[in-house]
Design brief:
The chain is an alpha/beta fold. It is built from 21 helices and 22 strands. The longest helix is centred in the middle third of the chain and has 20 residues. The N terminus and C terminus are likely disordered.
């Protein structure tokens, strides 16, 4: 007994030792590897725990039928890598061009095995710090005023090894199957274990519980071999092309809709699954009834005496018995490993399968605990793409930038430009940026104006839900007003009951841009940074509070917002009205003229011509300006009205150089004029 107690005390002592890291990441799926990449690039102390022997273990099993619904577009007609990511929904962000998913599959809808291979290479080629075969089974807190967040996170794995970290990043996704318990639910097969061999369903009648992509994926696999398939769920089908939400039913899986609407035996039904009951007869057939009938029957009676709905309603929709019932209800977050001290609670309503988090992706209950990847989708559930790789690769980068500022004093990356580049900067981003495009209404570019609007600071892809906290979250100041650039669909264009193919659905004229339905850029202008109260009181379905001014760039069929008259000119005039300045570009001759006729020069002349900056004169540029009517033609001519011979044209460059007016005399003349 003494030896046993001594050995036990040694084990307890060894188990009490903590291995410390600044950042602990749970899960080596896509979001876990993505945040690991950013932490490694920043030189931070981190570790990723993965319960499996390889990264991306979820994709080793799911989807069961192996076809991903994330598009892998090989060609876009563009060479811009940032633009091409708009149509690459599988690649993670990195500096290594080898790690683009198009190098792993050429299929538009790739096989899931290619994703497993891709994630393995991403972790190995970038030498990410992943500890495999480590299942974290318990997480709790240890209060310490010296810690970054006032506490440490204590983690325990399956071997009772303990770890301590200052910040915890949870990237486990949602992997626990949603299960509905009702009488007879023991006869139901789960999506995670059901056979994927169509021959196993030959000549059978099947009922599928669920209405999402996994349910329709399962139906699509057996559609050609079954007697018929019925599908039941509490809500009507939501088509992704109508809702503009990629998590709703995609066209690649909707074959059952054809056979249902074209009356080929298959069908869809709506009903609360918790009200159902399944009864198995002596032949092994499964009958659908209602819980009500079972609760009111004589429990001592035989199975044949159970009342079925068709006994009272002889045309009851599911009166035909089924051979198999399959549950395809999706997944939820695993809350079981988190101690109550973390106060990590499930959301409410449709978000109950996700943990409660702030728009900054930080837990509402515990500072320093961030939720990444699919599990963070409560921020934009059924609104944007935050639950999928092509969305959360950008939200994960945003979380890393927030952490860099909070813990290491590294401000949010930004670039300062002269105000004359404002229009160009916006046009460039709305035409190229992938983060704005994928995370519409969630991530936005922020333009912070400098004093007197002489320059601006550009911040990319900031979470708009924490706009009121911009100064503390980014380390940047916004005392002089700001613009917010975001992508949006039309207010009333998306929804399960919307006809998105109606005639005249698109807007083509700039004056009607505010009525645009399809995804398009929207620019909000605020004279002051919105407050927390203003964020809470913003209009329903608005991503931002009511601004001092707003501008919609009209939707474009090619998503190419570079048309001079339809896109750029209205934007420039909006910016000029907000700033009370002239953002046009001018030739040197015009700036020289304004110096004698205006009290205030346009910014382009102030920062360019007066500063001896701008394009160097040449004969080609002069000729282009003359032909466009922007300059007078001062070329010497002979008496017949023709231009002088070509021998004189060769000296035009020298003439232009000789005609340059020095800065000092110009300033002297301007001052003399003012006097």
């Amino acid at each position: 007994l003494s030896l046993a107690l001594y050995a036990g005390s040694l084990c307890a002592a060894s188990g009490a030792a903590f291995l410390y890291h600044d950042y602990c990441v749970i899960g080596a799926g896509p979001s876990g590897l993505q945040v690991a990449y950013f932490l490694q690039q920043a030189g931070r102390d981190y570790i990723v725990f993965e319960r499996s022997h390889a990264p991306g273990s979820f994709f080793a099993l799911y989807p069961r039928h192996r076809k991903l619904i994330s598009i892998n577009k090989q060609y876009t007609g563009k060479s811009n890598s940032e633009f091409n990511l708009r149509h690459d929904w599988n690649s993670l962000l990195s500096h290594d061009r080898r790690l683009l998913f198009r190098h792993y599959s050429r299929d538009f809808f790739p096989n899931a095995d290619a994703m497993v291979h891709y994630l393995e290479d991403f972790a190995s080629l970038l030498k990410l710090q992943v500890q495999y075969n480590t299942a974290i089974i318990h997480v709790t807190l240890e209060r310490d005023e010296q810690a970054w967040n006032g506490h440490y996170f204590l983690l325990t794995d399956q071997d009772r090894q303990n770890y301590k970290c200052s910040s915890l990043l949870v990237a486990t996704g949602t992997w626990v199957p949603n299960v509905v318990n009702f009488p007879g639910s023991e006869y139901v097969e789960g999506y995670e274990t059901v056979s994927i061999n169509p021959e196993d369903f030959a000549g059978q009648t099947v009922l599928i519980l669920g209405r999402g992509n996994s349910a329709f994926e399962t139906a699509e696999n057996i559609l050609g071999v079954t007697n018929f398939i019925h599908m039941v769920s509490r809500s009507r089908v939501r088509l992704s092309w109508a809702t503009h939400y990629v998590g709703d039913l995609r066209a690649i899986n909707n074959g059952l809709l054809d056979t249902y609407q074209l009356k080929s035996l298959d069908g869809l039904l709506e009903g609360d699954l918790e009200d159902l009951a399944i009864v198995k007869d002596k032949k092994g057939k499964l009958h659908i009834t209602l819980r009500f009938y079972l609760e009111n029957r004589n429990t001592s009676a035989g199975i044949d005496s159970i009342t079925l709905p068709q006994d009272e309603l002889d045309n009851f929709a599911t009166r035909a018995p089924y051979d198999r019932v399959i549950r395809c209800l999706g997944w939820k977050f695993d809350f079981s490993i988190y101690n109550r001290s973390l106060r990590l609670m499930p959301g409410k309503g449709n978000n109950k399968k996700y943990p409660q988090i702030k728009p900054s992706y930080e837990s509402r209950g515990t500072r320093g605990l961030f939720i990444l990847g699919t599990a963070s989708h409560s921020v934009d559930f059924r609104k944007s793409a935050g639950g999928f790789i092509h969305g959360f690769r950008y939200t994960t980068r945003a979380v890393h930038r927030l952490l860099e500022n909070r813990h290491h004093g590294v401000p949010w990356p930004s670039t300062v430009y002269p105000i004359t580049q404002l229009t160009n900067s916006i046009i460039k981003r709305v035409n190229e940026a992938s983060g704005l495009y994928q995370m519409f209404s969630v991530l936005a570019d922020i333009i912070l104006l400098r004093e007197n609007a002489t320059a601006f600071e550009y911040l990319e892809e900031y979470p708009v839900g924490v706009l009121a906290e911009l100064e503390t979250q980014t380390g940047r100041r916004a005392p002089n007003g700001l613009f917010v650039i975001i992508m949006e669909y039309g207010r009333n264009f998306s929804g399960a009951d919307k006809d998105v193919f109606y005639y005249n659905r698109a807007v083509g004229e700039a004056q009607h841009a505010w009525q645009s339905n399809f995804l398009h850029p929207v620019i909000y202008y605020y004279k002051h940074l919105p407050t927390e109260r203003e964020m809470k009181l913003r209009p329903p379905d608005w991503p931002l509070p009511r601004p001092d001014a707003v501008h919609h760039i009209v939707e474009d069929f090619l998503t190419d917002w570079t048309a001079p008259n339809a896109h750029i000119l209205p934007l420039r005039r909006f910016l000029e009205n907000c700033l009370s300045t002239d953002l046009r570009n001018f030739f040197a001759e015009s700036c020289f003229f304004f110096a004698f006729t205006r009290q205030k020069l346009p910014p382009f002349c102030q920062q360019g011509y007066v500063g001896m900056q701008g394009l160097l004169g040449s004969e080609g540029l002069r000729r282009h300006a003359v032909e466009a009517g922007l300059l007078e033609d001062y070329t010497p001519r002979d008496f017949s009205g023709d231009k002088t011979p070509d021998s004189r044209e060769g000296s035009q460059d020298q003439l232009l150089k000789d005609h340059v007016i020095p800065v000092r005399p110009l300033q002297h003349l301007v001052n003399a004029k003012d006097e």
